[in-house]
Specification:
The protein has 432 residues and is an alpha+beta fold. The chain has helices at 4-9, 11-20, 28-67, 75-109, 147-153, 159-166, 176-194, 209-215, 240-244, 302-320, 366-371, 398-406, 418-424; strands at 129-134, 157-158, 172-173, 199-201, 206-208, 227-228, 233-235, 251-252, 259-268, 287-297, 324-328, 340-348, 353-362, 374-375, 387-395, 414-415, 428-429. The strands form five sheets. An eight-stranded mixed β-sheet has the order 1-11-12-13-15-10-9-4. Strands 5-7-6 form a three-stranded antiparallel β-sheet. It has a two-stranded antiparallel ribbon with strand order 2-3. The longest helix is centred in the N-terminal third of the chain and has 40 residues, at 28-67.
């Protein structure tokens, strides 16, 4: 959530920043108007409360003198009546102010984060910048197969039974395909916890609505989420949601930051790509696995921690020997919560395209404000909002797609690199 103080102080800066994201019709004028009216109501309420307190003291003094002997003066009733009318007006101002505040909060929840100053301006994904590449796409003495053909021939992926069970954009992994997916997840978690310094979390896969508000998924993206309406619980679209809210409504003690978490969850999303777009294979599906990296950090360390986060995800691809590139997203392609984002795309030779397997972002204090997560920089210091960062480390099944297509052999088999063999228990997947 954007700070209302920032919007008051620099409305033109906020308008310009939102316009760079394509939010040309952002309701900043309405936000400012509501905020001004809410503050006016608060000022009037406080003034009347002060007058009411003065009346109470005057009445108290009169009643003390009356108990000491003497008749209560005639002004007592008029003072009591004035106090009663003030009370009614104060109650009305409270209700009106609360309504204005609720309306203001609804508007603020719909505003995306502001791009960081070093984010390149752009109007679409075409304006994203390639920061670096690693590895070279391999050359093959044969035509490499896409994963949808390779997976079926090797008995790893069953599209027909996935559709029979749950409909389009669902699939079944079986045999060595299921073992390979599980091996990648376990290996990712082990590397992050033993070498990169993350603490593993196993969170619920269903969360309350306020958790999605805290992470920035609600109210704007409710149509993309799966919900159990009876229990009012939501299936997580990513582990970012429960990890953001682990410390909701808490004040973290001095010295506790940075906090680095890693979590595996299945992810559930109502993918709504255009008909025919990315629908073949397992590239864009309604349920997928992902290992998520998440950090709570002090603001001054946010940029450095983002670079480390990207490096942790890159390390996995380098160990797997999968060529990739890192892109910095332009203003128009940033996610709702993000102030700055790097995407990591891996090369899939059978599909002939780059596939995003990680998106690493700093969200500044945007999510911390929504989830009311604060920290104390020092003992006795005023609580502040930390910065939050998140990134995939890594996302499946796209990593699996690149793995299968990269390591396929002329005879139709797939080799398993040595780094994974202790997890899979096999060194190749033979053609059936």
């Amino acid at each position: 959530m954007l700070s209302i103080e920032l919007i008051r102080r620099s409305p033109d800066l906020v308008r310009q920043a939102l316009a760079s994201r394509g939010e040309a019709l952002s309701p900043i004028d309405q936000v400012l108007s509501l905020d001004q009216e809410r503050r006016r109501l608060i000022t009037e309420r406080d003034t009347l409360r002060s007058r009411q307190n003065d009346l109470s003291r005057s009445l108290g003094q009169i009643m003390v003198r009356t108990r000491q002997g003497g008749e209560p003066p005639q002004e007592v009733e008029s003072l009591r009546e004035e106090s009663r009318q003030l009370g009614q007006r104060i109650d009305a101002l409270e209700r009106e102010g609360q309504a204005k505040d609720e309306e203001l909060q609804k508007l603020l929840l719909l505003l995306p984060n502001l791009p960081a100053p070093d984010v390149p301006l752009g109007q679409s994904a075409e304006d994203n910048k390639v920061v670096r590449t690693w590895g070279e796409p391999g050359s093959y003495s044969f035509q490499p197969l896409p994963h949808w053909d390779l997976g079926e021939r090797l008995g790893l992926i069953d599209f027909a039974r996935g559709a029979k069970l749950a409909g389009s954009r669902f699939f079944v992994l079986k045999g060595k395909g299921a073992r390979l997916e599980r091996s990648l997840i376990n290996w990712f978690l082990d590397i992050h916890t033993t070498q990169h310094g993350y603490t593993e979390i196993y969170p619920p896969f269903l969360v309350r609505g306020e958790a999605l508000v805290g992470s920035g998924n609600l109210p704007k993206f409710g149509d993309n989420l799966y919900r159990d309406a009876e229990e009012d619980l939501w299936l997580v679209p990513t582990a970012e949601v429960p990890l953001t809210n682990l410390h909701r409504d808490e004040i973290l003690e001095p010295g506790s930051l940075p906090i680095r978490y890693v979590a595996y969850t299945p992810c559930f999303r109502r993918e709504k790509a255009a008909a025919g777009k990315d629908t073949r294979g397992i590239k864009r599906v309604h349920q997928f696995d992902k290992v998520e990296l998440y950090k709570f950090v002090e603001p001054e360390g946010s940029n450095e921690e983002l670079e480390k986060l990207v490096g942790d995800a890159e390390h996995l691809l380098q160990r797997l020997g999968l060529p990739y590139r890192v892109l910095q997203l332009c203003t128009a392609d940033l996610g709702f919560q993000a102030a700055k984002t790097y995407d990591i795309e891996v090369w899939a030779p059978g599909s002939g395209e780059w596939l995003e397997v990680s998106s690493c972002s700093t969200c500044t204090d945007f999510q911390a404000r929504r989830a009311n997560v604060r920290y104390r920089p020092a003992v006795g210091a005023r609580p502040q909002y930390p910065h939050t960062l998140n990134g995939s480390g890594l996302a499946l099944p796209r990593t699996l797609i690149a793995f299968l297509e990269t390591y396929q052999q002329p005879d139709g088999s797939v080799l398993v690199p040595e780094v994974l063999r202790g997890y899979t228990g096999f060194d190749h997947i033979a053609a059936m």
